[in-house]
Amino acid sequence: GEMASPEYVEQRLGSKRNYPIREQPAITPPPPHCRLFHLEYLARHGTRQPTDGKIETMQRLERTLQQYVAEGGTFAPDYQWMATWKNPFVMGAEGLLTLEGEREQYETGKRMRKLYESVLDGPYNPRRLVFQETKKSRAGRSASSYSYAVLEGKGTFGECAYAPAYIYSNDLETDRELRFFDVCQRYVEEVSDNKTAAIQYFFFLPQLKPNAHALSIRLGVADTWNITALEMEALWETCQAEAGVNQDYTHFCSIWTTDDVTKLEYSKDLESYWEQGYGHDINWLDAVDLFRSIFGNTVAAVDSYRSYLRQCGPYATESPDGDLFTCKDKLRDIPYQNTAHLRFAHAETLAPALAWLELFDTPAAQMKFDTPPEIYEQRLWRESKIVTLSSNVALAAYTCETPPSAVAAKGYEDILIKILHNEDEVINPACSQLYCTLDDVLKHYAFKLEVGFDELCTIET
C-alpha cells in the first residue's frame, strides 16, 4: 500500500490532533436589525501530555523493542531508529497542558474576542463573563489561557494590562454540568465500565490483523515478531502522542500506509461513537444539566433585559419593583449582567454535547465492525474533525426586538440562536437553517431538557 504522508497522518490523529483552526472561518451575519447579546461556549482543553495509561503503553513498547534487540532482532533499513528508541514522555508530567495547548486556547480567545466583541469585550467583572473549568489542571489552564486573550488590556497588571480572571469549578465528584460522564451512575455502569457497550470496536480489531502482519514485514521484524492488532494500536497511540505533543512525524508516524491510518482512525471513532456519541442514548442524555445551564442562562439574559424595558424603558408598562431601587439604580446594574459563559472541559464532555445537539449525526449502520470502508468513509462522526484538542461548540444569541416588541413579547420568536462548532457556523437542527428562533430551539430540544438527571442516572440497588 501507499505510505501515509505526515499531512495524511496529521489529518487523522483523532482526539489527539492539535486544534486545526488557525483563522476565523467566514461567518453569515444575522439580519440587519439583530444584535448579539449573549454567548454560551464549551471547549475541550488544549493539547496535553499523554495520560498515565498511554505513558505506560509507551514504556512497555520501549521494553519490547529493547528485548527484541537483546535477542538479536534487527529492523529494516528505514526503521533502524527503533533499536534505540526511548519513550519521550515523563510520568510526572502526565496529562498536563502543553505550550501548544496554551497557544490554541489563547489564539481562539483572540479571534472570538474580535468576532463577539459586544459580549466578550467591554469592562470585565466575574458576573458579566463567567469562566468555568473541571478541577483538572489542563482544563483550568485552558480557561486561563483563553482568559488572557479576552482580558488583555482590561486591567492594570503588567505591560499588557491584564485583568485577573475568576475561574470557578464544581467538585469533581458532583459536577453534573461538565463531568456528567463520571457522576451519572447508570452511564458509568452501562457504558464506561461495560466492555460490551463498545463491542463494535472490539469486533473491528481483528480486521487490523492483515495490516499488522504487513507492518511486521515492512519493519523487518516478521521472522520473530508478528505484531498483533493490539500492538499495532499501541504503535498508533505512540504516533498520536509524538505528533500531537512533539510535532514528530519521523518516528512512529512514519511507519504507516494510508490503509493502516484509515482503519486505525475508524477504530478509534467506533470507540468514541459507542462510548461518547450517538451509540447509546445515555451517552448524551446525561448532559441535561449542562444544557439546562446553557439555555437557562440564555433565557435569563433575555428576560432580565425585557424586565428592565418593561419597568424603565421608553415604553414601560410596569413600575419598578420595590421602593428602594429606581430606574437609575437599575441602569447601573446592567454592566454586571451575564453576557457570556465560557466552559473548559474534556472530550467526554464535548462529544456527548455534540450528540445532544444532533450535530454530525451518523446512523449506527455506518458504525459497525463489518461496515464496508466505502460506507464508513462517509461518516460525519470523526474525532479528527469534531473533538480534536481545543475543539469547541458555541451558541450565540441575537436579539431582533425593538423596545416596544420586547415589552409586549410573550415568547422568544424575535431571539435568534446560531450554533457554531470549531468557530464555524453549522446548520441548526431546530429549524434546518443557520439562525433559528429561541422558541424553535427550546421546542426542538424540550424533551431532552425535561429529563431528570437523578431519575436517569440512579441505578436501583
What does this structure look like?
There is one protein chain. It contains 21 helices and eight strands. The chain has 461 residues and is an alpha/beta fold. Strands 1, 2, 3, 4, 5, 6, 7 and 8 form an eight-stranded mixed beta sheet that branches. Strand 6 and strand 7 (424-426) form a beta hairpin. Helix 2 packs across helix 10 (229-246) and helix 3 (99-115) crosses helix 5 (137-151). It is elongated. 41% of the residues are buried. The model has no long low-confidence stretch (mean pLDDT 96).
Strand content: 5-15%
Q: Quaternary arrangement of the chains shown?
A: single chain
Number of helices: 21
Helix fraction?
40-55%
CA-atom Rg in angstroms? 25 Å
Structural key phrases:
eight-stranded mixed β-sheet; alpha/beta; elongated; 21 helices; 10% strand; 461 residues
What would a concise description of this structure say?
The protein has helices at residues 6-10, 52-70, 99-115, 117-120, 137-151, 180-183, 185-192, 199-204, 209-219, 229-246, 258-275, 281-285, 288-312, 327-333, 347-356, 373-376, 383-386, 403-408, 438-444, 446-449, 453-457; strands at residues 35-44, 129-133, 167-169, 340-345, 392-399, 415-421, 424-426, 436-437. The protein is an alpha/beta fold and 461 residues long.
